[in-house]
Amino acid sequence: MIDLDNLEDTIERIYEQYYLDVYKFLVSFTGNQSDAEDLTQDVFIRVLKSLPKFNEHYKLKTWVLSIAKHTAIDHFRKKKFYSLFEDNFFKQLLSKEKQPDEIAENLEKRTEINTALTTLKPQYRMVFILRGVNEYSIKETAEIMDWSEAKVKVTYHRALKKLKEELMGKSKGVLENANC
Fold first, then answer.
1. Cβ(5)–Cβ(29) under 8 Å?
2. Quick check: 128 and 160 in contact, CB under 8 A?
3. Which ranges in 31-148 belong to alpha helices (H)?
4. How far is CA 115 from the centre of its chain?
5. Which DSSP state fits 133?
6. What does the alpha-carbon distance between residue 8 and residue 122 come to, in Å, rounded to a whole number?
7. Among 58, 76, 84, 156, fewest CB within 10 Å belongs to which?
């Protein structure tokens, strides 16, 4: 499957096939298109350097996304846990067909979700992005995270619970302030 004799064509094929998956993951994780573009390039440089070590018993997609995960973690550590999701991925999902008041309401909801996501610990955030945003299966998420499927299920469930608690807590605070 991996033709090391024709490395240029091989990496080009891998890049074309997985660029969008890697980029979407990194945009969701960093919340910044510019950082995601830079990190995507870093991922494929790492893929190129590690290609001779690739074990063909694994899925290529899982391997590439695992490299993306580690690249994101390294970036996260370098930034020393600064705010993620500043230019939130969800803002890109606004429909142009909606009325201004609907757009404002959606933006407000997305901002709430964005803020709530930043309160999650990194593992919860990663699992939420892979499962909830990128819609990877439990098995694919487990392979990418190098976890058991059970750990993915439990962590995703906990992430959703924490996210819901955070969102409900903010709603209660808004209602309490409105009654004053």
1. no
2. yes
3. 33-50, 60-78, 100-119, 122-128, 138-145
4. 15
5. I
6. 35
7. 58
What predicted TM-score, i.e. pTM, was given to this entire model?
Answer: 0.54
Tokens representing 40 are 């995507």
Other C-beta atoms lying within 10 Å of the C-beta of residue 175: 9
pLDDT digits (tens, 9 = 90+) for 47-74: 888 888 888 888 888 899 999 988 988 8
Cβ pair 26, 74 in contact under 8 A: no
Q: What is the DSSP string of 82-94?
A: PPS-TT-GGGGG-
CB-facing half-sphere around the CA of 123: CA atoms within 13 A: 12
pLDDT in tens, 25-45: 888 887 788 888 999 999 999
60's tokens: 């290529």
Q: 11, 41 in Cβ contact below 8 A?
A: no
